[in-house]
Amino acid sequence: MKTKGNEALSAGKFEEAIKFYDQAIHLNPVKEYYGNRSLAYSKLGKFTEALADAEQCVKLGPNWARGFQRKGFALHNLRRYQEAVEAYKKGLEYEPNNDQIKKGLSEVEDLAKWEETQKKAEEKKNEQMKDILRIFEGDPLGQCRLMPECKHLVDDVGFVKKVSEIKEDPKKLQTYLHDEGIRLFVTVAAQYQHLSKMTDKERAELFIKQEEERMRMEKLEEEERDRRRREEKKRKEEEERKKKEELERSLTPEQREALKVKDEATAFYKKKDFEKALELYKKAASLDPKNIVYLNNIAAVLLTQKKFDEVLEVSTKAVEIGRDNRAPFEHIGRALQRLGTAHLRKGEYSQAIEFYKKSQTEFRDPDTLKLLKEAEKAQEEKVKKEYINPQLSEKAKEEGNEAFKNKRFAEAVEKYSEAIKRNPDNHVLYTNRATAYTKLQAYTEALKDCDTCLALSPKFTKAHLKKGSIYHTTKQYQKALETYQQGLEIEPENEPLKEAIQQTLMTVSQGSSGGSNAEDVRKNIEKDPELQAILRDPMTQQVLNAIRNGQPFEHFLQDKKVEANIEKLIMAGVIGTGPKK
């Protein structure tokens, strides 16, 4: 029974092997039979059963290294890494030079360390929960008011209620941690607490350490995925080999000869001897005319030779023969893919798209999908190019101007969009549409058009003026000034740009003197990531605290970066410079 089980195991018939080992164990329950059955279970991915047999195996043979190898392998795949390490080490005590056990131990030791790291991370998480609870001690709402990122939460009745409940019953923290407001408050408060206790050097070292740990963990996880992929690949290759052997046993002499010739042809193809490869593929096709694999190979060579019309002829024939002889869907799909590629290379994109879609219907293939997207993109570009007409673009532009004059701004956007489609390289059209967008208060779209205009014509200062005016309108004064200044670097004597700068500075000055609306400032902060980053900076926080408490802060401004950040906050209206009324 053991011999029959071994033969079935070698042939990849694992279920059958297990039945033979069952009988062998029933007749004579020795360690070797349990070890063999454990291996068979592992081959089927039944690692719980494999472990049970391995346990019995080492119980019957406590000095048998292979039993511990089986046990280690099963534990490894059950992700009980530390136990697997112990099993492999036990096996090496009895066979110190066993390479397979050494390899298994090497693979699982890193994973055991990873598991230990995860355990420590969980412990650290519990400690962090305790730290979070400390945030709710004292006056959490007062603390929240001092942090720009979350001070608006104090006006939220629901948030205040939840904070109060957590203070009364700390267990409710776990319930409310999913709440967006609570999560934001906890995150920001923890960052301030932690960073405020650290020097610049310590913060830098912490960041480096976190990055190194993240990269190390990613490497470990990738190695484990690679191991599993290798095993899966090996298993599939073995299955393919057996299928091929079974297929060859059922082939006629001519079909066997065709396979042999095909292998020769492929060798020439790899050497880029395409004429010889083509000759041999044609010979293989004549030996086995119902097998469209050879016609697909011929089409591949012809594609390489750029003989696209011949590809169309051969691949059409391959599809017909394949359907008549019930060829595998994958083979028919490949022939349809070849048809699509021939049309693609000929610039016949709509036909290429049609055949790629048919190919995907036969057999889903990522390469075909990639080619389909390439064809669709090429077709789209072709349509765009064919649509270009500067004369019609000018006509649409005039219609847009007329609509704008009559305050039909949505229609103006539509006409300018048509003009852009007809002549996408005309940079002026984008500023025209940006102007119409601003009338509709579509500022994001307007800014995009200004950026596109400047990408096409970097020295077109009217685009700088328009872009700056949009920033001014949306109360992003620092960005407005920067944009106007960029325009002046191109045209230093540009009067509209100079006037725009003076107007923005006047507006900022009025806001800094007490006229800035707190709600407007808050909205500006919410939509400006740069301001948010500045406000999160620990040095900025120290300056703001000094200002609030009436303490001297000028010494902080000796740092040029801090000084620049404070100037941006003043421009944004976050910090006032005049007397409060």
From TrEMBL:
Transmembrane portions of the chain: none
Localization terms from the record: Cytoplasm
InterPro entries reported in the protein's UniProt record: TPR-like_helical_dom_sf, TPR_2, TPR_rpt
Primary localization: cytoplasm
Protein's UniProt keywords contain Methyltransferase: no
SUPFAM superfamilies attached to this UniProt entry: TPR-like
Keyword Cytoplasm part of the UniProt annotation: yes
UniProt entry keywords in alphabetical sequence: Cytoplasm, Repeat, TPR repeat
Ranges of compositional bias, category Basic and acidic residues: 234-252
Ranges for region Disordered: 217-252
TPR repeat residues: 65-98, 258-291, 333-366, 393-426, 461-494
GO MF, one annotated term: Hsp90 protein binding
One GO location term (cellular component): cytoplasm
Highest taxon of the lineage: Eukaryota
Protein name: STI1 domain-containing protein
Organism expressing this protein natively: Arcella intermedia
